[in-house]
Specification:
With 327 residues, the chain is α/β, with parallel strands linked by helices. It has 12 helices and 12 strands. It has an 8-stranded parallel barrel, surrounded by 6 helices. It binds NADP nicotinamide-adenine-dinucleotide phosphate. NADP nicotinamide-adenine-dinucleotide phosphate binds next to strand 12 and helix 12.
């Protein structure tokens, strides 16, 4: 809601709290079942007012968790700058109602210290992220990917020290293999900084975290799990059922390639869409609901290129349970 040009959050934003929030593993943190990702649509190339409208809609509907990374944009860093601008323009009065995450692990700046998992990179990157986002601390800082060369103890001790320095309240890891996840869990627990959450890709087209045992392990150990790209970047929506729309991510071509949409995949998406129609749901709604009904899931981390998409996706929170024959 805008009041004389100033954003005032909807006073009903927590009315649906019982349905919306889930505990993140065994922690004290509740996260919304739907969280908002800033990978696309929040960069320096995107219209600020559209990004702003999406975040207003999200927060007005109880989505308290925004997920970023140092190199989201484009250009790199610019999604965090958008977040910083949003803090100044709108969200500073609501800082304590927000759970903001960022990450480091992929290429960010030139030279040997702007990538992977060294202490030097993680520390420097978080300092940069805080400046860009206009924040004193982030709620959650992730190692964005497993580094097979840097000693795990170096990466993990950097995460511990980041929490102890007050620059992040919790830590998470993303896309680490199971054995490394187990090691991280033990290390962090022994150093009094329990692993809050694992971020991995689980959706109707990609069940690797289930197949690899990551989801079961997180669930047994009281670690939350948040699913990124839950709509497979838009494939699990009605977006591509009748061709490739001009304004779609696939048409932009960088992260979602046209080759991915084979005739076989399209047939499968259409069959899923029929099941969704039988449930009186959109394909997107059903795809998100399916994830949320899997054991051990805390939240689905969606992207949206406009408010209408997010509005449709929110409906999954109230979806019917699945019967075995559904999917
Ligand atoms: N840890 C990691 O390595 C990692 C990797 C990837 C992502 N992530 C996180 O996960 C977040 C989400 O990733 P994602 O953007 O790939 O998620 P996604 O939810 O799978 O895909 C989002 C895209 O799907 C389309 N869409 C969404 N809702 C729709 C609807 N109701 N109807 C039609 N189309 C719809 C939009 O594409 P159009 O642009 O075509 O409209 C939107 O940008 C990221 O922002 C990031 O925070 C993390």
């Amino acid at each position: 809601m805008e009041l004389k040009g100033r954003y005032v959050a909807d006073s009903h934003r927590y009315d649906d709290s019982d349905a919306l929030y889930r505990r993140c593993g065994n922690s004290g943190i509740l996260l919304p079942k739907i969280s908002l990702g800033f990978w696309h649509n929040f960069g320096g190339v995107d219209p600020y007012e559209r990004s702003r409208a999406i975040t207003h809609y999200a927060f007005d509907h109880g989505i308290t968790h925004f997920d970023l990374a140092n190199n989201y944009g484009p250009p790199y860093g610019s999604a965090e700058e958008t977040m910083g601008r949003l803090m100044t323009d709108d969200f500073m009065p609501y800082r304590d109602e927000l759970f903001i995450s960022t990450k480091a692990g992929y290429d960010m700046w030139e030279g040997p210290y702007g990538n992977w998992g060294s202490r030097k990179y993680l520390m420097a990157s978080l300092n940069q992220s805080l400046k860009r986002m206009n924040l004193d601390y982030v709620d959650l800082f992730y190692s964005h990917r497993y580094d097979p060369v840097t000693p795990l103890d170096e990466t993990l001790q950097a995460l511990v020290d980041i929490v102890k320095s007050g620059k992040a309240l919790y830590v998470g890891i993303s896309r680490w293999p199971l054995e490394a996840l187990k090691y991280a869990n033990e290390y962090l627990r022994q150093h009094d900084v329990p692993l809050l959450i694992y971020q991995g890709r689980l959706n109707l087209l990609d069940k690797e975290p289930q197949e690899e045992g990551i989801l079961d392990y997180c669930s047994e150990q009281g670690i939350g799990f948040i699913s990124f790209s839950p709509l497979a970047q838009g494939l699990l929506t009605d977006r591509y059922l009748k061709g490739i729309p001009e304004d779609s991510r696939m048409n932009k071509g960088k992260f979602l390639k046209k080759e991915k949409l084979t005739p076989e995949l399209l047939d499968y998406l259409k069959s899923l869409n029929s099941i969704a129609e039988g449930r009186n749901e959109t394909l997107a709604e059903m795809a998100l609901a399916w994830i949320l009904h899997q054991k051990g899931i805390t939240s689905v981390l969606v992207g949206a290129s406009n408010v209408e998409q997010l509005d449709k996706n929110m409906k999954c929170v109230h979806a019917e349970p699945f019967r075995n024959q559904d999917i």
